[in-house]
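Contributing new complexes? Match this layout with protoporphyrin IX containing FE.
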Amino acid sequence: MDDAGQDLHAVGHGGRKVGGQAIAKGDWLMLCYASGNRDEAVFDEPDRFRADRKPNKQLAFGYGAHLCLGQHLAKMEMRILYEELLPRLQSVELAGEPRMSEALFVNGLKRLPIRFKFS
Ligand code: HEM
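Output block (do not edit by hand):
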C-alpha cells in the first residue's frame, strides 16, 4: 500500500452493497484508499502515476460527508512547492538515511535529511 492515508475504518449502517457484497448494520469495514486509487474498473493504467488524468476520481482526500477539510491547503502547499520552490532549486542531495513512518494510517517519509542550494 502506498497512499498518504492508507486506510480508515467504518461501521456499516446496513442497506448498501459494495462490489456486489451486502453491508449489514454493524459490519466493520476497512476503507483501503491505496486499493481504491488503483481500481482498474475506474482508472486506465491504475499502477502508473499520471498527473494529467481527467477525470481523476482519486480518493486520497476521502469521499462524501467526511471529505478532507484541509485538502485545499494541502493542494496549495504542493502547488507552491512546484511553482515557487522547485524552479529556484540549484542542487539537492541526500544527507542521511531516509526513514518511513510506521503508522497504520499515515504513510510516507518520517525523515528525509537533504542538503540543498537555492539559486
Ligand atoms: C496531503 C495531505 C492530506 C491528506 C492525504 C488528507 C487525507 C484525509 C482523509 C483520507 C480524510 C478522511 C476522509 C473520510 O473520512 O472520508 C481526511 C479528513 C480530514 N482532514 Fe485531511 N488530509 C490531508 C491534509 C489535511 C490538512 C492540511 C488538514 C487541516 C489543515 C486536514 C484536515 C482534515 C479534517 C478536519 C478531516 C475530517 C473531516 C470530517 O470528518 O468531516 N487534512 N483527510
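Reviewers usually confirm one structural detail per submission. For this one: The two ends are 37 Å apart (CA to CA).
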